[in-house]
From TrEMBL:
Keyword Lyase belongs to the record: no
Segments forming domain HTH gntR-type: 65-131
Sections of the chain in a coiled coil: none
Official protein name in the record: GntR family transcriptional regulator
Pfam families: FCD, GntR
Keyword entries, A-Z: DNA-binding, Transcription, Transcription regulation
Gene3D superfamilies given in the database record: GntR ligand-binding domain-like, Winged helix-like DNA-binding domain superfamily/Winged helix DNA-binding domain
Keyword Metal-binding found: no
SUPFAM superfamilies recorded: GntR ligand-binding domain-like, Winged helix' DNA-binding domain
């Protein structure tokens, strides 16, 4: 029965950590603050070169964060969360000064972001490109496939401890108030991280992370109605139940429906931009 979702064989020696816990500390701090709605320029000042270049104790490595990677990730997440809104002009010299880096890594990062479809050229520098709803829909469809498959694998491969964590996280979300936007965003990220990690498929989780959309996370969360928030939570609970029942078919279907529901809510929000 499970052969439709997994290939029997060796799994990683150690269970995967939820994606939010494996990212470098500087990137986790950035994601948390930007998704919570903090201003990009203030964050840039707090996370400038010196802090990002510190050795990441959690990773135990001695590699410094490449400047271009720092600039790229900061701008990518800021654009996708709406911390840098559509049409915002971006001048290489200003970005470099804000992050205390030279213009060379800024230019390289801008070119990567342009290739990603997030920036467009203007007369002087760059600007944040208006998101195309067709591209966003396609991205959500990719998420339906990837996240649905990962959820099915979690129903098969999750340990009893991982299932307990998923169920507990789901229940904890139900206790959050509708007005607790930052807490709801953080808990949502943590819950999905637990589910994806339970899939036991590192390459799949990496693909999900690369395709994950934070689009206007804080602003979008403010737009979501009480009914939609209740629907999302109900879907989370059904997904957790399917994983606990080790039913991959139901878990995948529910995960796909959940991604589609978030897209339909976002579509309404997009039309107001």
């Amino acid at each position: 029965m499970n052969g439709a979702w997994v290939i029997e064989g060796p799994l990683p020696r150690e269970r995967m950590m939820p994606s939010g816990q494996t990212a470098p500390s500087w990137l986790r701090k950035l994601e948390e603050r930007v998704i919570a709605g903090d201003d990009f320029w203030q964050i840039a000042g707090a996370l400038r070169q010196g802090e990002a270049q510190q050795v990441d104790a959690e990773k135990g490595g001695a590699q410094a964060v490449p400047f271009v990677e720092l600039v790229y990730e900061m701008l990518r997440i800021a654009i996708r969360t709406g911390a840098l809104s559509t049409g915002t002009p971006l001048i290489e010299a200003e970005i470099g000064e804000a992050l205390a880096v030279s213009r060379t890594p800024v230019r390289e990062a801008m070119q990567r972001l342009s290739a990603d479809g997030l920036l467009s050229r203007r007369k002087r520098g760059w600007e944040v490109r208006k998101l195309d709803l067709v591209q966003i829909r396609e991205s959500y469809e990719v998420r339906m496939a990837l996240e649905g498959f990962a959820t099915a694998q979690a129903a098969i491969r999750a340990s009893d401890e991982e299932i307990a964590s998923i169920v507990a996280s789901t229940r904890a979300r139900s206790e959050l108030g509708f007005e607790d936007i930052s807490d709801r965003l953080t808990s949502n990220r943590e819950l999905h991280g637990l589910i994806f990690a339970a899939s036991g498929n590192e390459r799949l989780v990496d693909s999900i992370r690369k395709n994950m959309q934070y689009y206007f996370a804080h602003r979008f969360a403010q737009f979501v109605s009480r009914e939609e928030a209740a629907l999302f939570q109900k879907q989370h609970e059904l997904i957790a139940d399917a994983i606990a029942a080790r039913d991959p078919r139901e878990a995948e279907l529910l995960a796909r429906q959940h991604v589609k529901s978030t897209y339909l809510a976002f579509e309404k929000f997009y039309k107001l931009l």
